[in-house]
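User: I'm curious what two different proteins look like when written out as structure tokens. Can you demonstrate?

Assistant: Sure. I'll show them one after the other, since each token string lines up with its own sequence. Here's the first protein:
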Amino acid sequence: MSGNETPQDDQRIRRAQLAIMREELLAPANAIVGYGEMLREEVASAGHDEFANDLERIGASAQALFDLIESQLGDAAAWDIMKTDDTEAAQKTLRHDLRNPLNAIKGYGEMLMEDLDDLDDEALTPDLDKLLGEVNRLLAQLDDIVDFSGHRGAHRPTEATGQKSTMILDLLKDIRPVSEVQTTAAASGRILVVDDIEANRDLLSRRLGREGHDVAVAGGGIEALEKLQGENFDLVLLDLMMPDMNGFEVLARMKEDNRLRDVPAIMISALDEMDTVVRCIEAGAEDYLPKPFDPVLLRARINAGLEKKQWRDQLALEKAKNEKLLLSILPHQVVQRLNAGETIIADRYDDVSVLMSDLVGFTEFSAGTPPADLVKYLNWLFSQFDILASEIGVEKIKTIGDSYMVVAGIPEPRTDHANAAARMALGMMEVLKKANAEFDHAFQARIGIHSGPVVAGIVGTHRFVYDVWGDTVNVASRLESNSLPDRIQVSESTSRQLGGGPNLESRGGIEIKGKGRMNTFFLNSVP
């Protein structure tokens, strides 16, 4: 032990060395067992029954080797050997015991190789070569691997053993002992403890309560589901075996419920068979702890589960914010299509109504008005327009300066689009009157409406917008600019869709740039 190492440091290093020793023995032992099983399958498939007995002996010796490593180098057994006064004698005995099955495997394997050479069957040779190669390597390295002195590589130092020692020291520097780490909960949360045994519920709830968690208990699966439906929990400790409804079924129901599927569930059970663990993890369990569980390990699993839950909640919150932001600039249907993976959104609508509006004299007004006052007025006015558009069900497309543009009939087509655009225009005039009274101004507006086909879609990648294009948009813009203050000018196509009548005042023919002479009307009311 160096001058900087404590007895605890030395113990951790030697335990890590034991783990490396066990790993270096188990890796080739597993390979020997595996190659032996494949050879038995290949022999049976080829019909060479004469080799079956030797392969059975190889398999039995390989399994004996594996079991010996497991029994003698388990953590408790190996640590007991390292604490004895005569570790030299213990390691000699273990080396001898390990060589017995290795030599048996080698002997039977070499005889089998001779038989295969006589048979001139090369199909079985590769796997037998690999099996013997693992046996020979392990025999050659056995003295170096099985060393209880705590100084690996004392017999035949190699680059590999030096790397292993460095790896152990680096790992232990990064992973501090549990006693040095915070022993209280890293994150507190509301936890539901589900167990049909009252003593287990009491013990867990008291322990978790001391660590700062808010704990609720349920005595069975049905009660647990009732509590989960009525309350919010950050994590569930779920017993597997319960009389009314087992934990696996509770877990399945949680994962079927959109509100509960992201609540972490840690399964706890005295049943620790691998199939059960795997099925629970596959079903969505966050973790699985066999009873009786170590309190330190339980704390670590709970803290990890709560941190994941907090991360998921934060992610969901950010997603909701992003969704809300998208919905403020794009139609709901378009956002759904983007979320579904569409990258190019462009649609043709054969019959919609486009409304364009503009404030008369606003450019001159803005030149002599403080910026804050200007923005305050426009924000109030356009916010009221937005509310009106939402109530009527028309789509705001954009604002440009003091201009405001909406379209009725997109993204969901509607047969009454002209009527909706007319109601929007009349409502905007009423809102403008309220704005003038609120801010003591006397603004007037010009509005133009035209009905016809458009193309609508998303453009841009950084600051993308949902926009519309086509001759219908151009005509609506010309109608607005050629209208009169506080008048709503509509085209003949819009007039027809509105049904004509006394609510429309004919203006006669006017010259429209790019279109020539057009018959237009002033809208006074909605029929």
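Here's a second, unrelated protein for contrast:
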Amino acid sequence: MLLVPSAVEANSVYFPQVALGDGYSTIFTLINLDSVLLNGQLRVFNQDGSPLATPTEWQNISISPMGSTRLTLSSGSKLALGSAYFQSNADVAGMASFERRNIDGTLESLVDVSATVASSRFVLPVEISSAGSTGIAIMNAASDPTNVRLQLVREDGSIISLKRDSRLNPFGPHAQVATFLTDFFPDIPLTDFKGTLIIEATGPAVQIAATGIAFKEGLLAGLLAIASSQRSMNEIIMGVAGSPFFVVTFQKKTITVPNNYDFALGPGVYEVSGDISGTLIIALAGPASATVGTPAVVGGSINNVRGPRVQISPCFILYSSSSGSESFSFQFTVSANTTHVCRNGVADNPLVDSNSEGGYLGRNFEEGALGRGFDLRAAAGGAGTVVVAGSSRTIDGQNFVLRAYDMVSGELRWTDQTPAFSGVSTRVFATTNGERAFAASYSPSIPCCSDIFVRAYDVNSGKVLWTDVWDKGRDDLPQGIVANSDAVVVVGYGGNTETPPISALDFLVRAYDPASGKVLWEDRVDNGLLIDDVAWAVTIDGTQVFVAGTTSVSGGRKDLFVRSYDLTTGALLWQASHADTSSPILFFVEDGQLWVSSIDQVNVFDVTSGKLLMHLP
């Protein structure tokens, strides 16, 4: 047995592995590290992400200041695996103890593993030999699907394999995978290996948790998975953002969701292609510590091959289409023998430049490109301005960041930042209309958690025109923003209770007057105390605004529902739904039809009546 010595403390801690049945039980030890009474909730999930039945009292757990409690999860049936997390109002540390007992009740094995925080990246020591192996458990800590990449690294730092396992791509909400290292890399002869496994969430959601167990000569030991923000040295990162929709194809990968994407590229000339309707920005970069000899994108090598209106900076390219869907392609060069590279902190790339006007941006994005956790949203504004929104980790916590660039030269025009809630790393959003820019983020609330933060700017000067903090409950977060001359509409989720029993999320919509920030109307959908209702996407067409959301149903599944409102009054015009779908990733109107696309299906509705016109597959 090995007790992992480092205790993680936070308001939310995660247990990537839970085992019960076939003689196994899991004992959760929770310790209140704060000076106030702790109130919290322990939630347990099956491997498919569906909730696992637990005692009712686990919905409202109280622990005295500096006190502790132990909770046992067991079953007399066959072995079942899963994951868990504990939410509270105070700093808490935790440990999971896995016991296996024989039929007569005698202890056969015991292993203890510390709880962890959620992060976008974990590094785990691994070892394979004739005497044993390493078991890996990974959970999606978010309520939205993500994708996970695995990187196996030798002790000398060289990379053996970059892997995207089908079980992790996509990786469903609260889903869990537990298996041996050799099962993740069956094509590699790992008969005698020592090194590390890097586990990275690449989006759309970027919150995972991981742990490991060493099996050696019949003994078990818990392994510490280290949350890390460092990157591999030979990666090229592509930051992609656009609206209302786009498709980018590169290295046999199709990209439709704004995020940062990693590619292991050697020297050569590469071509990126796709289709766009609206605005698309693609930034290229590598790690800040890249040196001569490390393959990197050559600054100034981006060359447009075809496409709509285009602006090119040394390290990013911006396309603007005003006539429906248009195709594009461009080329860039990767070289190991140049000092003029695109990388985090290099002045050649203004999107990640650490200069005197916004130096914190480059300094805090230590993970390359636009930073893991910097969820890029770009919008073309008036007077040739590109507005980019994101969030950055700082020494003191986390900031919401908005930066505006000259569309032609890439020079920074203005920047704004405000503290964000450091307990999460999720998307922020920006859009423009005429001479105004609008952003939706999240700000800390008292005593914990987050509120939706909405702000309007003069797009030319960066002057703040108005600000609204939208507090509906514990975990209020935006998921989209859209604007025209009549209204700014923000959608998201929240409204859950701050004290146990913590209720499920509600679908939230709020419309503002673009000039004054006055709330024009709002809507909230709550289908039940334990049913998550989430507004994921929003778009405007004429006098109508459309919002796409999901509502949770049994078995961890979601049902899609779409609501159409009058833009200025908020009157509900129609609602449509479709069973068993995932969260929307594409949402737009074209030729009188509303298209809603997720990772597993496409639904098309009539914009006037809400009638379902087409469903694929």
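A detail about the second structure: The longest strand covers residues 80-101.
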